[in-house]
Amino acid sequence: MYKRFMVTIFGLSLLCAKNSAADQLSIPLQIDYSLIKKVLVSQLYTGKNNAAELWNDRQGCSYLRLSNPEVGGKNGQIRLLNEVQARFGTGLGGQCLTVLEWAGILETLQQPTLDSGHSVLSFPVASATAYDHEGRHLTIGKLQDLINRFAEPRLAAVKIDLNESRSHIEQTLTHFLPKDNAAEVKTILKSLKFNNIAAGDDGIGIKLEFNAPAKKTVIQPAPAFSEAEQKQWQSAWREWESFLSSAIEQAAHDTKSPELRETLTEILMNSRTAFQAGLEEHDADAADPVRVFFTDTWGRLAPTLKTIANELPGTQGLRYITFIAATDAIYELERLAAPFGLDISSDGLRRLARILIAGKQQQTRARQAS
Known about the structure:
alpha+beta; five-stranded antiparallel β-sheet; signal
């Protein structure tokens, strides 16, 4: 579902991609702290009972452990709270003699930061404060030194690669779009970068920026599908419907949610009816069936996808977050008459369907010729 959606977005952008200067567009994303916590756990908290074993003396007599991380926002930074267990000991007669043992809380304030390539997100530690369970600050120099040497670097080493899906997007575009547009697609994708990162109360805000052609497209009516085009559409739709049905099953399996399967299946069935009505002639004064479908569906689907994003392990939820932001951008771009020439209507569907059918025919001819 995610890949097909990206094909649609960038395929539409190609309608006005030639011989024009580029404007930079910005799409807001938010990565909730619940997802940040999952990334932390998967990369760092891999020890027994999901603890982060930061240091030990290999005898089990001395160690530094973090556990039960809680992630939030504070003063424009990420606030991470960890339970800390520290012990210094020495082996004596096959047993450990404890010299010093301490337990408390480690609070770190971390600044979300993008690397120079605008693709990898990290969390350098701006400050680290340890205190016991009564709120008294740590005054033991040896333990503070241990935290500085081992806790801060390990926490700062956690990273999120925001561009993991880029190669998959490029492969999908190359496979599904007409070959003569491949160069323009790659040019647009090459300009894509993440920027303007900020920590808020509920998550990290990021801007997804990319260059789009500055020339605005004058939207012209598109004729209804002929009988021959209807047959081509039905053939293509059966293939896409099969793909989307598989994607629905996978999404339901990932979230273990039969309710999600029912919602997405109902949306898929409704899309068939709405798209068919949009391809045919209909009363121009009546509500456009395609616009009504997208508006109503997105109001139901966006909260569901946000729930999925927060439930999936690790960074898997990022693809749903990107999907949500990109879809929101479609409505905003159309409202602003932006350079994509987006048209969420029956006319827009007819133009897009003809592009996709032409691409499928081109692929068929290429396979037959090889």
